[in-house]
Structures are given as structure tokens and as C-alpha cells.
Write a structure and sequence with these properties.
Layout: H1 5-36, H2 40-46, H3 51-58, H4 69-85, H5 91-115, H6 121-171, H7 176-186, H8 191-203, H9 208-219, H10 222-237, H11 241-265, H12 267-290, H13 293-296, H14 304-326
Helix pairs in contact: 1-5, 4-6, 5-6, 6-7, 6-11, 6-12, 7-8, 8-9, 9-10, 10-11, 12-14
Amino acid sequence: MPDLVIPLICVLILVSVALGAHTLAELLLSARDRRRRVNRRLTMLASGQAPEQVYAALVREPISAGTGAFWRAWRPRLSAALAQAGLRITPEQTITLVGAGAAVLWVISLVLASSAPGSDIVAGGLLSLVGSLLLSGGGVWLWIGACRRRRLARLEAQFPVALDIIGRALRAGHPVISAVHLAAEELPDPTGSELGLVVDETSYGMDFREALAHFARRTGSSDAHFFAVSVSIQSETGGNLAEILEGLSAVMRGRATLAQRVKALSSEGRASALLMSVLPIGLLAVQLLIHPAAYAAKVADPIFWPVAGVAAVLYVTGWVAVRRIINFRY
């Protein structure tokens, strides 16, 4: 068995470096493209692509028929999270990134374990694999969440301006679709491209209210939901849409001001909650990665798994309680 460790490590190093380099190159290229764009949809249209191709590239992601039921159920959720984060990578590339990071960490752990005398390579390798997956998956999850929060903050900062543009266009006599199209051309990403997709969907025959509902679900913004509901109610009951949007814009600016005050007052509690949520998993993953023998000797103990189960239940209960305490709604 020890004779197979070095060739296995070499193969894993080769595979992990290749996967990591491929995924990193795609991430760097997509980041450079994002920096060069102000409005992604307008840039793609200006490059000569057909509107149908632009819409398919920004919205539609068909799932191959050969995937399993589990992947068909979870892929749309991961795809929606990536879209809300503004990341131009597919769910398959995300899984590849997690696997490449886990492989690199696992190889490092195997090298450390093989140099330690008297260590069980098989048990230690399995436990270090769990730690590698926890660290790699948790890191990618935190990165996607941070990108999503930044993009959502930009969208909600730009959206009152978009409502002002739409309201002025309505007062000037433009129809609603033309007003939304004007805002889509005037505003940068992410609001400009998202409103442009609403115009595209309406042009392809979708009802305007349904296109706004898709816009709200696609962005995950509460302000977008308010906008979609306001337009839907106005289309059924009538009224001055320009005045409704003016009032909605004032409400959004007030909510943004309140949100900044709440974040400032609760910053210490949110930081403590983040530390309490991430630290146990992070320490467990690092311990499994750098010293798996500490747990390998205790896995066979009959009391190990009941204690581990109770600890997991207590951790999940505490995480839910902390989330409910710091999750302010306004």
C-alpha cells in the first residue's frame, strides 16, 4: 500500500492542477469581460449577436436529458444563485472548481500524512478528503454569497433611479414598455441588463406582468418584487402609474436609508454570528485536513457517532437561532 501512495499523489496533483488552471482561466477571463462592460446586454447586441441569442445566453440554461434526478432538482437553484451573483460560470464549472480545490487540499494532506510515521493512510485519507471537501465547498459557497450580496446591493441602489426614469418617460407620453426600454439603455449593469431582458421577453410574446415576475425571481430583490406587484395591480385597477412609481421610489430610498442604519447598529452581532457559524466547521475541516489521525483513532469507538450526531444537531439548532436573531426585516 505505501508503494502506491507516491504515484497516486502524482496523478492527483496533475488532475487537480489541470482542473484548477482551467477553471481559474475562465474566471479571470469572465472578470475581465465584466470590467470592460457597462451594460452586458447592450454590448452583446452591439457585437452583432441576434436578440434571441443574447436572451438565450443571459437567461436560458437547458439541462441535458442524461442528468440524474438529484442534479435536475438542484441545478436550477445553483444556476439561480450564480445568476444573482453575476457570475458567468455554469453549475458544472462551479462543481469543477470545488473538486479542483478539494483535490489540491487533499493532495497536500496526503503528503503530510505519508511523512508522518505510523499513520493509517487509508483512514486518514478518507477523513482528510471530508475536510478538503468542507473547506473547498464552504469557500466557494461564501464567495458566491458575497458576490450575490454585492450585486444585489448595486441593483437596489440603482433601482430608484430606474423608477425615476420610467416615471418621467411615462409623463412624457411613452408607453410602459418604451419607458422600461429607455431605462435599460441608460443604466449600467446589473439593472440595465435585467430590465433589457424584461423588454426582450415582452417582445417575444410574454405578458408584461409575467416578464416582471420573472425579473423579480431572477434578481431575488425585494424592490423588484414591489415593482412587479405595483405594475400588476395598476394594470388591473387603473390609476396613474407615474405617481405610483414616484411613491415607490421614495419608499425604496427610505428602506435603503433604514437598512444602512440597521446594518451599522447590528454590525457587532452579525460579525459574532458569522464567526460562531463558520468557526466550528472551519476548525473541524482544518483538523481533518492537517491531522486526520486525531479522528481516525476514534471512529471505531461506539460512543463517537452518537456524540457526533448530538453535536451536529446542536450546531444546526444554534445556527438557525442565530440566523433568526440577526435576520432583520424592514
